[in-house]
Task: inverse folding
């Protein structure tokens, strides 16, 4: 497979040599196009060494046949991957600019186009960037990431370029996945907050990253997606309808009110099992050495959905710390789910707030389990949705 890797200007360009190397390990023939801005972050020689080919930068390359290097590259590529794709690069692609070699090749090629965005979290959240993103998605561009986490500028949020290993695997295995075309999927994500008083609450550890990754992957697979999210700071994936909630009761009510047209329900939220019986109307003062709270069991959201007369295909998550598969299978049976995704949150490298995950997936239709090995939550989401799609066939 011939893969053209485009590198636009951004600090994440330091990951590009590793990305090229990993693509070649998968058996790809890789050629590299750099923008002028990219050369400020990474040198041509590094990329020439790992790709085995000279790096392309100029529109009219005198060494190319008939000096039409951009057309040759456009015809040569089976897939085009731009990583990192800066906000400026995305804007150029969305509006059809062809003012450098990279954007010209992208415009002149019929090859599938993939982008791995990388930018400051506020730039990613900006409405202009999100509108450009939606334009590209509508044209069939496949978007990989971005990830969520610490950024070079010191901010924390969405905008990190995904890791090279994940991008390489997704590019090499990607086809025009429309396996969920025509399906309406509802996903719950994030924690819930159960009020103690107007300024305090009880909650669970959850960043919402897994649920939001599932929502983004489901849209890419052709599904209509409704995301019911507890309080998180993650940007809504393009094409996703988001409903914000706070408490478990809020989440339960919104799920039930919007359940009529749902084909698949994925309960990924870390819903608090108990809420405060009578939250105080005023802030509680610190007067005693002990504070006794009376708690009541919250609604069982996924259990309620799974017991509807015309229930959707129900997928649950089980975050366990010991005997993980045993407890996960018990949850599958007790709640009458169709599938359970079990993760070991005692492993902090894949637990709450991590960018990575690993799942043991058990289906009610089989005694066997499948393991989705440790990788980024974006790739985990894609693989899990493929398993769900197989069960719907």
Result:
């Amino acid at each position: 497979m011939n893969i053209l890797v485009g590198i636009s200007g951004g600090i994440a360009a330091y990951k590009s040599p590793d990305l090229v190397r990993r693509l070649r390990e998968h058996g790809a023939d890789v050629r590299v196009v750099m923008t002028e801005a990219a050369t400020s972050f990474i040198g041509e020689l590094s990329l020439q060494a790992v790709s085995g080919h000279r790096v392309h930068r100029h529109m009219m390359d005198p060494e190319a046949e008939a000096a039409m290097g951009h057309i040759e590259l456009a015809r040569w590529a089976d897939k085009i991957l731009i990583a990192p794709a800066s906000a400026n690069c995305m804007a150029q692609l969305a509006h059809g600019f062809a003012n450098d070699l990279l954007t010209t090749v992208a415009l002149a090629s019929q090859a599938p186009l993939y982008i791995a965005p990388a930018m400051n979290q506020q730039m990613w959240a900006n409405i202009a960037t999100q509108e450009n993103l939606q334009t590209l998605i509508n044209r069939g561009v496949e978007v990989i990431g971005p990830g969520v986490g610490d950024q070079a500028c010191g901010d924390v949020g969405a905008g990190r370029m995904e890791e090279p290993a994940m991008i390489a695997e997704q590019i090499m295995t990607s086809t025009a996945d429309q396996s969920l075309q025509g399906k309406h999927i509802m996903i719950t994500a994030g924690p819930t907050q159960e009020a103690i008083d107007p300024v305090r609450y009880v909650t669970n550890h959850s960043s919402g990253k897994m649920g939001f990754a599932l929502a983004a992957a489901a849209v890419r697979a052709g599904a209509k997606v409704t995301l019911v999210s507890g309080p998180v700071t993650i940007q809504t994936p393009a094409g996703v309808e988001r409903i914000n909630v706070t408490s478990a009761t809020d989440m339960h009510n919104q799920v039930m009110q919007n359940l009529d047209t749902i084909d698949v329900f994925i309960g990924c939220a870390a819903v608090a099992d108990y809420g405060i019986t009578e939250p105080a109307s005023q802030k509680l003062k610190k007067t005693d050495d002990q504070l006794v709270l009376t708690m009541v069991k919250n609604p069982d959201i996924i259990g309620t959905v799974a017991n509807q007369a015309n229930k959707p295909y129900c997928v649950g998550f089980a975050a366990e710390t010991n005997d993980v598969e045993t407890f996960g299978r018990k949850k599958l049976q007790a709640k009458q789910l169709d599938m359970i995704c079990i993760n070991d949150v005692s492993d902090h490298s894949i637990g709450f707030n991590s960018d990575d995950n690993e799942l043991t997936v058990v289906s009610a239709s089989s005694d066997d389990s499948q393991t989705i090995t440790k990788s980024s939550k974006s790739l985990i989401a894609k693989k899990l949705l493929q398993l769900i799609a197989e069960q719907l066939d």
